[in-house]
Amino acid sequence: MTKLRKVLILSGIIALLGLGASTFAQTTTVLKGTVTDQNGAVVPNAKVTLSSASKSVSQTAQTTGDGGFSFRGLEPGDDYIVTIEAQGFGKVVLSNVKTQVGSDTDLSPSLKPGSVGVSIDVTAGGAELLNTTDSNISQGFNSRQAVDLAATSIGSGINNLALLAANVTTSGGVGVGTGGSVGGERARDNNFVVDGIDNNDKSVTGPQAYISPEEVQEFTLISNQTPAEYARSNGGQFITVTKSGGKDYHGTFYGFIQNRNLNAGASDRYDRFRGGFNFGGPVPAVFSQMQHGDDPHWGQKSDKLFFFGSYERLQNGLGAAALPIFAPTANGRTILAGIAGLSNNNRNVFLQYMPVAPTNNGGNVIVNGVAVPVGLASITAPNFFKQNHAIGNIDFNQSSKTIHRWRFSMTNLAEIDAAANLPQFFIALPLKQRLFSYTIIHNFSSTFIDEMRFGFRRSSNNFPAGNLQYPGLSMFPNIQVDELGVNIGPDPNAPQFTIENNYQIVDNFTWIH
User: Fold this and answer.
1) Owning domain of residue 234
2) Taking a C-beta distance cutoff of 8 angstroms, is the pair 139, 221 a contact?
3) Residues contacting residue 239 through CB under 8 Å, at least 6 positions apart
4) Helix and strand numbers, DSSP H then E, in the chain
5) pLDDT of 287 above 90
6) Number of domains in the chain
7) Mean pLDDT for the chain?
8) How confident is the model at residue 438 (pLDDT cuts 50, 70, 90)?
9) pTM of the full predicted structure?
10) Most distant CA pair in the chain: distance in Å?
11) 480 in a structural domain
């Protein structure tokens, strides 16, 4: 093996180690700490137990020679209970310990001498603790904030929460994009991640797959000193983690409606509806019991398999827009029909699609030396937006060492392409988005953890030209009438379509030494 080849292989291994050790922060969280006694001396060989408040799942670790412990690959947004036990010391229980994507939660529990039966309960708040691990500037938002804060219900949805964080302003004069200007960067430099999967639109930037605020477990923005593992752009890192089920069944039903009958002073027709439901909890134990040949008990709940599902519909119906254009009057149409030397095809198409001006308030247009009276004509055009969206999440805690996670999201959207001048050529634009991921996390030991993820994202966006026929041609052309300032025909940029299939395979491992 040549020296150059050895160097290249070694560089690749170092790169994989570096990336693997840190990309856990994109989907999971880290809880660590150092156990000391009342004098500040470290306590080795202490037993540390981590339990989930929402799931019947726990794992244990033993403090090292320097009193340190760590739990990696944790689900964000959950409340954890940390129990520390050591020979000769009273037991300490830390409840309400929170973790956050993008930064480590660092605990400093202190033990006091006592018997085994002595217990000290402490209420912690991990997400509010000072980050002493790195120099990241990050801001986390929990599921309730994602739903209750009004900023998430308009425009960019959940990503609007970034505007409430430090070091973020509206994009203003620094260019177009989504999420605002983070750290002075252009909004197009922002990076969007959903459940560890790249969610960036490769054509115009910004997020691609839609996520409802009702589905968000945690949203985190890293606004400065971005860790190297994100490695895509210098803007903000918009990290969204969706919900999972828990040990108890739970769900919500919600709806929002706004229209001219409810809005004071609204003179135009305006209907807006947003509604849906979600439901989560443990999968009935009968499924897992039958798999292993046990007797099914329908009343029992599984403590290993959990699900979460959500459906949402968005619908906006705006008042028909009045489009003022110049067109011949009724008398002008009669005159135009009798002018010699014109293409019959073009004239018939013109008369078929152009409206009739009620009065001659636009002067005359000369056609082959003949004056044709024209006027201002107002035509109405539809304007609506409809979207159906659903997600399904499954979590399987195979053991205290192995966790499986499946995530699926789908969005079907239809809106009006109003780029044409005449409403006869307006057409519905179908947009379909799919997002799927499978993640397996395995703890080989307290110092070695591996995470493998497969992700697939698909976006299909179609701009059809419609099926209107023009005599003698296979497709309807665009006829520009400069004197009237009107284009007869479909969207000048149609037909076109965009299909993006994005595949991601990642294997990250962390070795603590």
Assistant:
1) 137-242
2) yes
3) 26, 101, 102, 193, 219, 220, 221, 222
4) 5, 30
5) no
6) 4
7) 80
8) very high
9) 0.78
10) 110
11) yes
